Amino acid sequence: xxxxxxxxxxxxxxxxxxxxxxxxxxxxxxxxxxxxxxxxxxxxxxxxxxxxxxxxxxxxxxxxxxxxxxxxxxxxxxxxxxxxxxxxxxxxxxxxxxxxxxxxxxxxxxxxxxxxxxxxxxxxxxxxxxxxxxxxxxxxxxxxxxxxxxxxxxxxxxxxxxxxxxxxxxxxxxxxxxxxxxxxxxxxxxxxxxxxxxxxxxxxxxxxxxxxxxxxxxxxxxxxxxxxxxxxxxxxxxxxxxxxxxxxxxxxxxxxxxxxxxxxxxxxxxxxxxxxxxxxxxxxxxxxxxxxxxxxxxxxxxxxxxxxxxxxxxxxxxxxxxxxxxxxxxxxxxx
Amino acid sequence: xxxxxxxxxxxxxxxxxxxxxxxxxxxxxxxxxxxxxxxxxxxxxxxxxxxxxxxxxxxxxxxxxxxxxxxxxxxxxxxxxxxxxxxxxxxxxxxxxxxxxxxxxxxxxxxxxxxxxxxxxxxxxxxxxxxxxxxxxxxxxxxxxxxxxxxxxxxxxxxxxxxxxxxxxxxxxxxxxxxxxxxxxxxxxxxxxxxxxxxxxxxxxxxxxxxxxxxxxxxxxxxxxxxxxxxxxxxxxxxxxxxxxxxxxxxxxxxxxxxxxxxxxxxxxxxxxxxxxxxxxxxxxxxxxxxxxxxxxxxxxxxxxxxxxxxxxxxxx
Lengths: 335, 317
Known about the structure:
heterodimer; A: alpha/beta; B: 12 strands
């Protein structure tokens, strides 16, 4: 299996490759984009983008010189025609620099890139929310080489897709960055925190009603309250356990380390560490966790032993027990 | 932005459709547009003629959750109801894993030629194009992406990332799969022209728009404990058919929010008056030709809670 990991600065390339990443993905704001459109959001990340032009060429060169592959995230949900024009130019510069793949979420952009015939592999972003074999084949028909599965899929569902589309590669999340909803069909904005932040982190009061408009009874309200309390706990785990780390800096939060052998067995060839905008140390510590687990599996550890190992990597409070950190909670019953 | 009588010509031709998720509500539905507008507290249309019209299309199904895909029995029954009432039929479908695709394939076999299928998943679209070319695919709201955050403080925010819908490239792509119609919501701060697309017929859902959808369902976890909650493969008891939840932010932050609620795995908002006017203006201009009203699976009426309500026990959870 291969590890794909994020970078947000060129200085991270060397350390990330040295720590065991096989592929590095990143965003770039095309030259002239901010001036033309008045925003710097291109790829779902306002900050943490590499420079276009010389900066892009140097970064891709450094990745290739280091033995890695470079993937460019062009993963907005959708773009207008005039924005596509600048993205195509960026993809052309990336290809000329020796880049390997673009990660795409918008169908029109995918079609545009495929028709342009660039020497780039087309990877379907998790934003595209590919959840079934027909969808995978749909993207394959448009030239896709790989599908990145969205969050909140079971291993069995991924296996169904992989069987239906044997010519495609598949990539799945293994660490960091939870999302409570489905980012491919979330039509909201991550507002500044003073305006509420992401809607899933915003503070809402809840007022339940039955379909007939009646309020819940006291007994029903108690059940609803208990469920909401559990939901808040689940959300806290998904948001990196309050964005906390172990004393040595290893991140808590969404994790599929125990599931790596199952992902491998189900046709997933690449595992993804999320978190483009996170600090370098968090990226490196995340990579350290994934690399160590993968190396242990490649060394012959069986799934149960690997799960024990993965759970032991983060010394400190046992956040694994409740299963709310798990990307693939069904694995809890397997190991 | 009132719609003048003189410009309201096209509006009387607007088709009114009613969407139902759960077949239990079918027998009691009022098929007249006027009472439906009133029940949904929709700003009256600028044409009395439209309010006098009858509903002419029935949408069955749910766009947001695979666990709400209707059974073949319900679909057969609904086809019968539609036939008897002279209504055209649309089947609404959600994004699905392969198991859901198999369920949909069984339903597609039952649909009469020419029936519409609203698709929110490119896999479903591919399946229709390959195996069911006699059905009419419609691009659903989850394919027609636009910013619809009910918390946006100003119109500027709504314009940050303009929708791709309406671009010739997107329409051409949809056209390759036989799509001739799209469905959208009225986005916050909508102007009538936001509801104008080039070559596609356009349906608009009212008076609620969807902001975001998840796969994990909070209310669907109600009967589970511990790690069994909040899982994507949860076999819920379809609690969303029974419960809805109003969402309110603190006044200092959310005083300008659109009225918002969660139903099942999705968050919705109610149009404000300006948005409804924009919709009627677009209908009057002939840019939208169908309005889809929710027959169920909508915001219940949030009235005043009485002490009696609080203490009533409405049955098992």
